[in-house]
Amino acid sequence: MFKRLKSAIGILAVLTCLNSFSAQLPYGQNIAEQKNTVQNGDWAPVIQKALKNASEGQIIFFPKGEYKTKSPLIIEKSVTLLFERGARLRGEGEDVIRIEAGGKIIIEGLGGQGELINEYQKVPGYKQNGGINGRSPSVINVDFVRKDASPSLLVKNMYIKGFAGIQGYEEKDKGKLGDVEIIDCRFECTEKDMAHKHSEVRSLRIEGCLLTGTARYGIYFTSPMPEGAVVKNNTIKNIGVTAIQLSGGKASQIDDGCVEYLSSAIVHDNRILGGGHRAKFTTAYIHGILVYGHNVSIQGNIVRDFNRGEPVPGAPCGQYLKLEDGTYFRGAWRQDGDKKVRVAGSAIYAKARQGIIANNICSNSGWRSVIEVKTGGREPYVMVCNNVVDGRSLSIEGSFGFECNSGKSVWSGNLVYDMPAEAFVVRGQDRYNTFTNNVIFNAKIGFALPYTADRAENELIMNNRFVNVAQPVALEDGKIQKSSSVHALPPLIVTDINLLPPPSENLRGQLAVILSPDGDTVLICSKHEKGYCWKELSGNSSKNSMILRKEYLETGKNLNINPDQSSDKVSEEEAKMLCNPQKEAQKYSVFPCGWLVTITDTARTTTPSANVNVKDFLKYDEKLYKTGKRSLRIGEGDSQVNCQLLQRIKLPPGKTYRAKATMRATIPDKISMYIKYNDEILTARNKKRNSWEDLSVDFSLPENSNGEVTIIIHGSKFGADRLAWIDNVSVHELKEKN
User: Fold this and answer.
1) Residues 505-519 as b or e (16 or more Cβ within 10 Å = b)
2) 20-227: what fold?
3) pTM over 0.85
């Protein structure tokens, strides 16, 4: 009884959907009612007769079941093919559906995805052998649209499988299409999922589709689209050469009119996951997203693992191509006879006028570049903002993260990291581009400008941050760019000349301000006959004086408590050095000797005074040390912890000191030493992996200081495989070297 009730409810739901659909379009016929007229299992004659006899806009309903056809189904009028969930139309020949004319043609799944499958997959040699009758087999073919027709097509909630899914790719002399909408479909094709070129498509909308399989091209429309394109929220997996390409038409350059074919484009929130590996060495380009057009918005997309090479062994980033002869290709140009031909690729490539490229994540994608933008000389305005880009898959030589071949553009808030060569390259001249608030980690060159300084005069590059970048701004031939209008580092603010970093080539042109109650001093890092120096600026440049940093020697005894971790108890003399000896001396006497400890994990915060065994996280190591007889090891137990070691000492004011911690860690950039006094905080951080290094901070206590100094060693996420060792921690008075 219950099963019959469920079945009745299911039938009622389907009938309700049919009635709702029928309210919009006149009902045609249930194709399954013609089952008795099918001969030799071929439904093609039956379905073709239904299509011919259907009135304009009628529905042909395919209930659950399989319908095999041995010849293409020709559509010449407005009609709806409505597929119940589980209905499968399976073609065994040239095309499954061939559209030649009509007003609006709808192919839609009801209650789930209907299925359109072309069994003919094997096309030996493809075009070389002519496919079938000189053509590639398709599921839905629009290459036969008549010149006097411009049908619109809506494909919704369908599963499409074959050699080519929806295509009008091969016939040049064909009629136009109206509005093309492909919504909530799944494609599993071996050559092309969706492809159209040559004749016009009035407008394009592709949303919510899943593209899998081994196709070379995913969404490929290079037709004129006068009312624009919207491509949103699609997932595209392992496409061979190009995942999304819109327009370009018959021209490839902006001056030739390549952007004229697409009036507007919205490419938002798509996910391109893997691909690029069907490109051969002779394939010029791979592209995650390529758009040529006016009013282009490319936002919120993820392009991940879309590349064509393999990592270079031993290199932190960058790839090469292994050739058939066993050699490796490392750049972006190959020699083809007397010609140099590109071997290129990008995650996002745009030729656009008035465009926004923003909030995209491009990870391990591209070859010559990650994001390229070319605007041409007319109406160029473009914004490229808030993108996250890495260069792990770029060619080890001759590659770059961003290319700006544009004018009057803004590039701001981009996070760029792990570039094997250049982070930004700027092409052209007199373009008035602005580059601000970008952050670049790990690159040889931050911004590479045109070869001569006068060609870069109008580029504004300022307030960017560079971390581990050899040359922040340089000409393309590797020379340092000297124009102050191009690159302005923010000044360093310090209270003492000796707190400035040593002058060097990388700091050339850097301003610094030394704060003083009697008046501030402005310095600049300059080159002189013996190297580099800090030079004081004054109104008269001839009177600018060179200021050399003082050099100091450590003198006297170590003023720190238990410096080499050898003691198990704080002495009376050491206890007197504490800021509050009566209150805290006992705490300093417990393990580990000389330190107040705070350990934090996801479950709790503990201190030595709490009822927790700190030895779960800290141990003395008598096998690995540099001075004394042991070191203090951080990082044991099953959980990851944050650990802070702290001690307070009193020092005579009015003197200069050096605090130094000898330590090692299995992970770089995880240990910091902080020196806190008065309202100042100075810091140093470890850089090495698995080798001893000194974290060193020089500081001066003012005459009016109370002499209280806090030494903090802090690290995060310690565990069984993330360890650190603290060896000698010292504080010495400094005397100026003669």
Assistant:
1) ebbebbbbebeeeee
2) Pectate Lyase C-like (2.160.20)
3) no
